[in-house]
Amino acid sequence: MTETATGIRRRRMRRMMTCGLAVASMLLGLGDRADAAGQAVRFAHWVPTTHALHQGVEDWAKAVTADSKGTLEVQVFPAEQLGKARDHYDMVASGIADLALVVPGYTPGRFPIVSVLELPFLVPSAAQAAAPFDSWYRPLAPREMPEVTYCLGIVQEPGILHSRKPVTVPEDVEGMKLRPGSALVGRLFASMGASAVSISAPEAREAAARGVIDAATLAYGTLVSFGLDKVLNNHMDLPLYSVPVLYLANTRWYQGLSGDARAAVDAHCSVADAVRQSTAWGDWERAGRATLAGLPNQVFTTPDAAQRALWAETGKPFRTQWIADATAKGIDGAAALADLEAAIAAAPPPAGR
């Protein structure tokens, strides 16, 4: 018998609660130590402490703690300490974490509206798309994610294809086993003949080393951070897609905050914070390319204009599908996409680009 969506959610929630019991004593101990300084707040994420997103979370946590007038003590749990990357939405919805860093693409098909950033060639850079995206999605988030409270949305610097062998045109990926950056990206490469292997970034290094995958889509800095450059050393220098990464809050926790505490959280759940985080992350990702360029055995290929046109053509059906999926969720998909595209085009590019 096929498992229903409700059954899947219940099974996922049971797994989350089991995880919560496993870490309860640790969290309670930390809470006791934080009582003197303020309410202990659990911020969960899944990236290693060497990643720019971790530094962004740390800076955000310190700013909220400092601005809360002693009412909050935000504690960061990195590197999947409280649960797997794909489970972070349910962790924050259930209260295992008060705040969490969430990649909607890790739960394919669940959040089609926010997946707009995954459309090929939509995002020129993280810094340019950050304010338009956060402003665009903020009023839509309660409709798509009613179980949680939206804080802010970060834009990933466009992802690149990394592989064991050089790639310049779509037909080169036929037969590859590829770890996509999202479900939509997986479908994009499946349309070219690749097999998508759905695993999170923290799992990709081992999968590549074992031969489970022979290609992956990631931005440069993330590739280096997870050590994938040691296996996937061919890089196609063509920005393909982006990914939204969200700060989400447990609604019961958020609604129970005191005035000073809520003011501190609200002050940093802002478009300005989304831009600051996206820009810093984008700078870090681009620096990863320079790091790779200085290492031996790293090969970079740049498709020419005709080859880029072939890649652009592969993305058109997914734009049409996104419009249909968004419309099914009760919004005017065509108008919403046009509004976002216009806002991104009107936004200034990052300095020096």
TrEMBL record:
Pfam families: DctP. CDD domains: PBP2_TRAP_Dctp3_4 (cd13665). The keyword Signal applies. NCBIfam families: TRAP_S1 (NF037995). Residues 1-36 form the signal peptide. Keywords: Signal. InterPro entries: DctP_fam (IPR018389), TRAP_DctP_sf (IPR038404). It comes from Tistrella mobilis. The keyword Signal applies. One of its GO terms (biological process) is transmembrane transport. This is C4-dicarboxylate ABC transporter. PANTHER family: BLL6794 PROTEIN, PTHR33376. The lineage of its organism: Bacteria, Pseudomonadati, Pseudomonadota, Alphaproteobacteria, Geminicoccales.
